[in-house]
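Inputs:
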Amino acid sequence: MEKKYLDYLFKIRLPLTLFVIISTFIVTYYISRPERDGLGYEPSQPINFSHKLHAGDMAIDCQYCHLSVEKSRYASIPSVNICMNCHTYARKDRPEIIKLTKYYEENKPITWKRIHKVPDYAYFNHSVHVNKGIKCETCHGDVAQMEKISQVRQFTMAACLDCHRNPHKNLPYLKVVNNGPENCYACHR
Amino acid sequence: MDKKDFWKSLKDYNGSDDLRKIKENEFMEGVTDDFELGKLTKLSRRKFLALASVTAAIGATACTDYRDKGEIVPYNKKPEHLLIGKANYYASSCTGCSNACGLLIKTREGRPIKVDGNPEHPITRGKICAKGQASIYNLYDPERLQYPIIKGRRSDWNRVDSEIIESLKKATEENKEIALFAGSVKSPSALRVIENFKNKYPTAKIYSYQLFNESARQKAWEITYGTNDYPAILWEKADVILSIEGDFLGNEGNYIENTRKFSQGRNIVNSGNLNRLYVAESRMSVTGMMADYRLRLSPTKQFKFLMGLVNNLYKKGSKIKLPSYFESYLNKFDLAEFKNNEKVKLLIDDLHYNRGKSIIYAGSNLPIEIHLAVNLLNEILDNTGLYDSKYSFVNLLPLSEMNDIRDLCDKMKAGNVGVVIHLDTNPVFHLPSDYDYVEALKAVPTVITISSTKSETADLSDYLLPESTQFESWGDYYARKGVYGLQQPVIAPIFDTRQKEAILLRWSEGINDKFDEGRYRDFIAETCREQIYNKIKPASDFKAFWYAALHDGFIEFNENVDKPVFNTRALDELTKVKILEGDYTLIITESYFLGDGRYANNGWLQELPHPVTKVTWDNYLSISPATAKKMNLDMNDMAEVSYNGISLKLPIFVQPGMSDDTLHIEAGYGRKSVGVVGEGVGFNPLVFLTKNSNNSPFVLIGVDIKKAEGKYTLSSTQEHHSLDDTFVKDFHRIRKIIQEGTLPQYRKNHHFLHEDKDELFSITDEHKYDGVKWAMAIDLNKCTGCNVCVVSCSVENNVPVVGKDQVAKGREMQWIRIDRYYSGTPDEPIVSNQPMLCQHCDNAPCENVCPVNATNHSPDGLNQMVYNRCVGTRYCSNNCPYKVRRFNFYNYRDHFADAYYENELTFLVNNPEVTVRSRGVMEKCTFCIQRIMEARSEAIARGEEFKGAGIQTACQQACPSQAIVFGNVNDTDSEIAKLRKHDLAYHVLEVLNVKPNISYLAKIRNIHTEEIQ
């Protein structure tokens, strides 16, 4: 009886359990991949700002607000006084603008939820990419059509390298483009 | 049945049978029955716990917003000229010592992260010393004073101001003195503040005191030439230099300026210039390490030696005629002691044949008579053309005579002083103990100390007022003729601190208005308008002039200087000199990196290896090998030094090249109250200072020394890194780590270094580098071993402080070190310095052995280190022939002194462009990859091809002698491409064929023989 039980254990139960565990892991891994990479992350922001309205319908240039994108590592989230350039006059009666004005007058910074994040140990440089002619949409998606910003592309090392290795495929709109650097120090230091 | 006295129940009382049965059993029925497993729940305890924890885990996961990536908080109103991710630079001035060097402070998002020299400053030309580099740590020191303290209790400025003004008024009414105890004052505005203060409180008196100062040189100059302001020296024009106990390259005068000028005279690689440096000294100094000829000379013999030179050279001819009485006095000095010394003969010849092109210099610690003799000798040799009067040192407020301070102490003890204000000074630590300053302070009703850290003096004060650091203060400085330096704050005061001038100004102007930081700025602008603008009368209006000056950090203007005329009064002084003798002579010098103790709480400076001995975190008693043998003393033994009834026990360091029977201790250590980092580090030799010193206060003749009980451990960085040469002498020369030559040898054959070279071949194909390829060249002719590069690198690359115990285990983290090698004999060593950092080898041995490919090669020739891949096997470090890799045995910010530097404040010092490494990863020099990448991104922004011109690594930028050159070797126009092909260029351990990208330019010794002696 003892032997029979072990036979059952090793021949059927153990492989079955392992199979279930491994296949669950693999299935979950792939299914949850976009979720884990943050795809579709669309948090609520302190002010209901619409990129569709500003960048899309009114066609304001990205760099009017994200002013350091050509010069610095960071694109930078606009400070409140940039919003107030227009909203001192424009649409002062709307509830979201009243909220904004209150932030400005109380001299309180707005705590926006972060959507796109590259890890601390990767030193991504916006200016290098933008100055090479890469469009914002390539990584950030068609922001001009987004009412609420969400993440549409993965920000993983594999995604970076895919573009660095196959720039022609990923950036068809660029006539002249070289492969991006692939060495470690290009991003990590 | 007996009736019972005690009963539990009626049944018991009545004596029931059932009860008796029950009582016969120990337990109630059923208690001991076996469990019926079938009836129990299937859920075992283990399973229950497992399920409970799974539930908790799922609950926790579901409840946290795991997709949350934090927040981005932009400015509400972004300051103009600030771009997130881009550094801003501001010109300012350093207040670390009386040189007031020009600074260029790098700030990121409003916080200062790096300090370098202001490249346009006429004196320092973009370089500052190690203390200046590390001073940024003082801004973020967690133990900085953060609020005013009254008698040990937290207070506020309103109360402090009103109470102190009351005390000041009371002292004035009672006609008691108000003593302002200041350091050396170089600021015209501060001087005006003090004048205002004196007008308001007429009994106020200023005392200016600096422990290590140039007053002997200044007074000698005054006696010889009748002017206050002694000149700088044009070292670059000198062909022969004689320094007597003078450390002009190490820590005397403006040694950063001196180093730059001196190295211009050592530019054999580019211009073929090579000066000859003679050093006659008793200790081994940085200048001594650079000497072509070094003469060991005890302090007691220095005056005789110098006068002997005067006598000898005067007889060979002179620019000035000396009176006959002096000529006969001179005849007493005949150099008989040095009759057989070859070096002295060569020295006399060199000085004689290079009249007008040589300079003699004496150490600041030496007594006035030596400086007088030096002035005389320079005059005889017609060397006065090398005095730089254009940039003379300005004596704005003369230092107080020691008699004045002695009188102050007496007045304090007699109760004639109402208030003492210490303006960032620490007299309790600095003044000789026989002044009894501690007792004197007790007799003063109100003692005020303005300081940014606690100190021995602060502990005895009634009011302790926190001072802003140099990064939070305004200032103006007039340290050199023709240069007016400005200081501007680059960050608002982090804590509730004020700068000392603003505090004094407020006390003299009243406290009716709210305190305004800008008041002192306006005050400086007034000074600038009155003293500078109105004098030079520029075309622009004052506002434009002022902003331009703030932007530049200094104003340069022409000042009339009188030509100094030699005054024979100096000769009289020289004839009065009494020569003292004694068995042992103790010399006390200022610490290279802690100054007079002011920087004792700075971990970076404490951990910086001493330029000569390579000892960190300590001072010690240096003695010569012969004296050690005679006294039966060895390294790390304890010795007891006594002088005037005071004794001090401290460890021995046997220093090759010291003169016999001379003892040397560096001061600045042994602070009792300064902070966790500096307290109890080292020993305080200032206890030996006495008011009765009849020589220089720092040269004590006739001290006693004896062996003491016990052992001590000095932590030094040299033994465990270099190939120890005790078992094979001159190993560094045999292995060709150090390659050197002499000038005659070089003149005869420029290619002498590469004559007997082995042919090296590789068994694999060489990798091609088509684009940019980085390399560095280090000119060993120029390197003085000053260590400024080490601090600059540590600040730039977030290198942590590890502490004494870790240094003792060889775990220091500095990415660059200066290796110091001795050759010759222990008595007359020849010193070679060599900066050692990652060589970025083309065939890097570290890369082959990494099991996880965490270190590998980039297409531009860099040896890359990826922290996230590193698993900490340390194979790479083991396989590195240069031993330049550093392993994080701990998270050192957490490990050092109970996480002293791990706090919100100190983290602001970190360079945001460089990863902060944690425990378990290897790290090393990256050739400042963050600076390369920054330059690359700028080239791309401009749409240019990236050629790599103009990039400076942190060590290169800091090097005062400009010994380091970095660049792209594939750019044939670049300096580095030329230097790599220079005849003097060699690689360390070339035979290994690892093909390093760092070339060293061999040192050429300017001596008369072809062989190095």
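The first helix of chain A runs from residue 2 to 36. Flag for discussion at group meeting.
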